[in-house]
Please model this.
Amino acid sequence: MQPELLFGIHSVLAALERHPERIAGVWLDARRRDGTLQEIRAAAHARGIAVHEVARRDLEQMQPGGHHQGVVARVAAAAGLGEGDLPALLAGLGQPAFLLVLDGVQDPHNLGACLRSADAAGVQAVIVPKDRAVGLTATVRKVASGAAESVPLVTVTNLARTLEQLQQAGIWLVGLAGEAEQSLYELDLTGPLALVLGGEGKGLRRLTRERCDFLGRLPMAGSVESLNVSVAAGVALFEAVRQRGVVGGPPAA
Model:
């Protein structure tokens, strides 16, 4: 695989801490001597990784748009996980499954934000389809603020088949849909669980919706019909976190 560029303070720090063997070099804004970049310098030097002090314009050439926050790293691209890796991943869980499935999220900022919320909520893996969805880009990694290095992202070629695989493993599928009769807060989210959310605009695709065991909606008190997918994911994940402090069974019918 071709090396990729990683940018942003939190994403580079996370890569240095978790996968230093993949980092070929770090480029820093030579004019900056603030604490966060000093931390990156020290972490890179401690791991024997070359640090290049360069002008800001050089960083902007490496990462057009100026969103690098003064640091860019060149890393070997991760192999990534596919649906063939799911059985081993599920077998290795030391507690009831808590997964997030995203059906066709295309905006890298949304995927990055979902990964960040997933990490904060203790999600064990995020599952996305290969087609008509964004992958693990540099922008996703930056927005995720390190979560892309800690939460496995599983890319699958057939989402419906993967959902069936999860069901066969005893995992309940709870989809978020505005037309659902029950509120998400009425469902029991404490057992082995995969929360399933649709992409921007269209929500869950028909086959995905039909595969879910239960559908829940977020109550909307205002004039807007729905929330941004990353916001909805955060709300749903932390409702599950709230409930999962209590031992329970499958979602209520």
Q: What stands out?
A: Residues 97 and 239 are 16 Å apart (CA to CA). The first strand starts at residue 4 and ends at 7.
